[in-house]
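We emphasize that the prediction below concerns an isolated chain of 251 residues; any contacts that depend on oligomerization or on bound cofactors are therefore not represented. The input was used exactly as deposited, without trimming of termini.
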Amino acid sequence: MEPVIEPVRPAPMPFLPMLDEAIRRLRPHLRTIFPSVALPVAILTTLLQVFQILTLRGILGKGEAISSWTLLWTPAALLIGLVLVSVSAVAYVAGQVAALDALTGRPIEMGRSWRFALRLPVWWTLLLSGLAILFSLLLCVVPVLYVAPLLSFAVPAMVEEGVFGFAALSRSAELARFNPGRRLTDSPIVKILVLMLVTTLISYLASLLVTLPFQLPMFIDLFRNVMSGDRDVQAAMSRWLWLPTTLGLRQ
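Result of the prediction step, given as a token string:
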């Protein structure tokens, strides 16, 4: 009687070995991928910050009492926010396309990655994903901790399987829920959520180390103006409008 050989069932890779393997494979390609994605976003962000500063100077220079909420919802601020979100989304997709090419052994062509990110079906999928995440944020924020990881495989599904729109989101959810062992620590959703939190924390701390030495004099100056009885805080803030551009260049 021949022995029964059970089929090998694939299981999710543990979090730390998976992270180490991903970094090991991508490290040789960072010089190709990172500048092509980061530089256009950094340059555009700086130019938009200059435009924002010029707009705010014009508004604050009128001497009228304007609330922070009014400044936030100016047409210029809304336009800048829309452009930044759109460009960041395209750069995010282009970076993922290049990373997938590197992981699968395909030649990395950043031009092809950017062209793929600019396709209308990709934008439609990103819009659907963004609306789902926004809706989950409106539901007391907590659901986004599940929805965001659930939709995080949408770009790989578009690149590797050629599916877009609702099909890409459905495929992403299917991949994110793949957990044959039914263990919480093996769940892709948990791993992606931890990865999101860790990368967000590292980015925030790195940004804080760069910006704090420049922001500290601004806070001290504003505090001194308030303590001295000067109620014209907007005039004091207008003296520091150059700061976001400097920080954008350094970051």
